Amino acid sequence: MTRYLRRALAALALATAAALLAAPAAIADTGEPAPVAQDGLWFGPELDWGSDGPDGYADRLGETPATYAIRLSYPLDDKARQDWSRAATAASAQGAVLVLSMEPRVPLADLTRDDAAAFNAMLEKMQGDYDTHHLVRFAPEMNGSWTSWGQQPREFVRAFEAVADVVHDGVSGAEMVWAPSYGAGYPFERADGRLDDLSPADLRALDTDADGLLTEADDPYGPYFPDADAVDRVGLTMFYFGKGESGAAAGRDVPLVSNSAPDGGEVAARLDEQWGYTVPQPETFYDRFAAGESRDLLLDTGALYDFSLDGDTELAVKQGWWRQVLAELPDHPRITAVTWLEAVREEAEAGAQEVDWRLTASGELASAFRADLAASGQVQWSPITEVITPEQASASTVQVRQGNDEMNWITGAAAVLAIAFLVSGIVGRMLPSWRYPDDSATRDLRIDMMRGFVIIVVVVTHIEVLSPYSFASLNIIGAITGAELFVLLSGIVLGMVFPAAVKRGGEWAAALAAWARARKQYLVALAVILLIFIVSFVPFIDASAIMTFTDRGTGEDGQATTGRVYDLYPNADRLLDYPPPWYAVRQFLLLEMGPWPFNIMGLFVVLSLAYPALMWLIRRRLWWLVLAGSWGLYALHITMPELSPLPSQFNAVFPLLAWQVLFTHGLVIGYYRRQIIRALTSTPGKILVGLFVVGYAGFLVYLWAGDSFGFEPAPFPAGLYGMLYDSGYPRIDLHWGRLLDLVLVITCSYAVLTVAWKPINAVMGWLWIPLGQASLYVFIVHVFFVLAVANIPGLDRQSFWQGTLIHTAVIALIYLMVRRRFLFSVIPR
Asked: Which ranges carry the GH26 domain (predicted)?
């Protein structure tokens, strides 16, 4: 075994040693985001995030709301960070604003500026990663007696201003929202006793009428208002508890005996500060803090329903409330956002019974609410901010250089391949003993060797550390990606082995075996997705390295999206619900989630399902029909790239309608391999192949020379080389240049392996051939190696020596697993 490892180290180092490329890290734009435009009422729910999510809510409502609200602990702990990140990811997929209700879990006096700085850092990260706009309700309902931070005016003001100062000095663009509760019944029954613990200074602040007592005659809002510069929006919590005026005060223990629709004009009376008060108020909350100070108002509201009680219907109760809210908006234009509690929870106001606040639990209710929102003509639906969809997340994983830099590598690779092709002709004549020994065998080891080389490139590319291997994979092998050869060679192998399968058991048995293999691939794909998700809950393992993808600034959008983090497991948390919602199950079953190094697996599953039917046509000499249909689908993709037959994750990176063209051609090439070899090795065939190889490489070199040395490459325009990459070589869509590159690489590589087989096999065959014969196995297990490397503590990904050691060790371990056939009975090969 030591001998094999020594040979591996030596051979791999010799095969890929080259100068190192250390590209400077791109720097994300740290400027403050542009203000978010608001052109109407922002409506959205406060979800029970433990059992619900934006996709489910939008599906039930039939519209995409502008905001989603979530309650988080402050100071931030690990759970709050995780919940926030998941909420921001889900909201960004709809371009929605996130309303944060930050609830202190320690005494206000213990909150520090460091806590505020940590919070602001997370704000800036979420905004930078997901373009999320935040409305921050810090310590909401601070005038209430039911919150641990309530009725402490001096400490609340200090804490609010400390957070506001840090947030306003930052670059997140977040808005600070001061949000007390509706004041009727203040200081509320539950304040009895606890007010005795307040300091004399706090009592003086709360005793606004200076009568020496804290009563309903005192101002329920003013003592808690911070410095005006600290407040960007104001908020007001105003729920309907269904108990009439006797239950006006939130937190008052008044029994709920029946479900009753709200009295007419109740919302208007509340906004006029006339409902539920025993002492008249000199001025309304709306006039004092919204209209009077030119601030927008965020109304937090909802109406409860207890299904265990008699009375009015749920529709009558909840529609009666929301219609009153909507009716007041024209007379209160500063109310620009409304959040509605969308949850089932216990309420003290209902005798600690569980009640339902939701508007979308039933189709009838959701339809009525949506119709009333639309009829109001005031609602601005999402997207409010940039939409970052799961499809964009998947597409972001294709990170390449653009323009001349990439074309230079493509041109250089084409030139080297052309030279190697010409030299192979000379070697074949002078050293015939080096040739590949048998062209008639069912298994072609040259194909296996190419597959082995390609799968090593895939492994090295996905384990993102600096080493000679990564330099070779990302730069020297610049003409094509490993994925293209991977798909083409897989088709060739399947086209070659199908006749033998038919010979063993007949065509139907061969088709059933192929479908069984496809089923196994699919189940393994689901298993890998689930395993990575499960591993993410293991302490001390950070699975975000493959469950999310951080934009390197080298994707389709260039530097503009550098540092943006994309979630590749949309709604995965919902799979833990009982029962899990259908939309999450559907995303799982259709492979709409999964680790980024694994996304091509879905393409193989779909192609494998089509494989028997395609071979049925090819065996009947209808290969031309297969290819004609394949090119028709390819043309459909080129003309309508937005057309997506499947929502699967792979389709954003490897569009099925385009990438199937590689697989179908591989099947035809594999089935007719001997005839094709005979034709191409005939004299006319050699001439045609030589003209293509030299002509294509010469064309690229000629354009490169014109661009580099400043002459016009007649008859071509002077700027053609600069436009060549964008017009012909995008990786996702497999444009003409990428397809020509693939023909060039497969032709030249096969020719070189044919005439110099014995020395190449002696040096690298021991490694490349077994890995190539188990390439699908290697691809599946390499995902876990990517995760393992990402969790190596203290790893410096830019260290040449660490990267070389990591790449060598991973390749050696995978090689040993293949040689020992580890889990071969479970994992497809």
From this structure: 21-372
